[in-house]
Amino acid sequence: MSTSLDTRFKKIVGSESASTRSRWLKIASYVVLGIFSIFYIWPLFMLVNTSLRPFTEYLQDPGGLASSPSLANFGDAWELANFPQYMLNSALYTFTATAIFIASSLFVAFPIARGYFKGSKALLTLYVVALFLPPALIPQFQLILNLGLYNTRPGFILLFLINPIGMIILVNYMKSIPKELDESAAVDGASYTRYVFKVIFPLIRPAVATVTVLHAIGIWNELILPTIYLTDPALYPITRGLIVFEGVYGNNWPGIAAAVLMLMIPILVLFMFLQRYIIGGLTAGAVKG
What we know:
This protein is an all-alpha fold. It is 75% helix and 0% strand. The termini are far apart.
């Protein structure tokens, strides 16, 4: 009788101890997550805070909080950076290059994923190797120059029609689709184009959404290439327009902060629209293969 009571008492004490340990572990997890969240949220908070401060107030105390928040910097940035024209250019470049890249990648990734031609594995390896190579700026510049596409919209869009990481995600995701579907489509007499668009494309929507967002963000935020390949102000994307805030003795940081916040809105909307597909597409495309 006494042994049974001791055993039950030990179980109760052990259960309470495990519950206490679990509670402390959860608290520690929240503390660690909170600290990491501060590292991520603090720069965004300072960006918003800086955008709301007058330039003279910012010069007096760059790290201080806005004493009298104002939206004047947003209006100034809209006018100085020529937002309507440059944002339209950015949207044109981003939409056109992303649409062409996604459409063409479907037809390249599918035979690579299936191994329908000799050397498909070697070609996929080349895409992986390309991830670790630096940008070939000089050969690329010579190519665009010789094609007569320097300082033109088609020439600038041509720079963004290749994306190795996007191709790798699509190939790896397509490998998860059963090959029996190919055979069924062939028996039914479906053409290659119709099969890719009508059958494969709906099945890989998470991967396509992920690649679309990654590719669009890369084009939208690009700053180096517009300064090299575009000299006509009428062709500038919005990132090139932000250079107007640079000064000889200092930069207009409140104006830049306001412009950056306006700049991120379209991509943020695109991300929110496609976010339900992105995590699944990114993890599946990275793991399968």
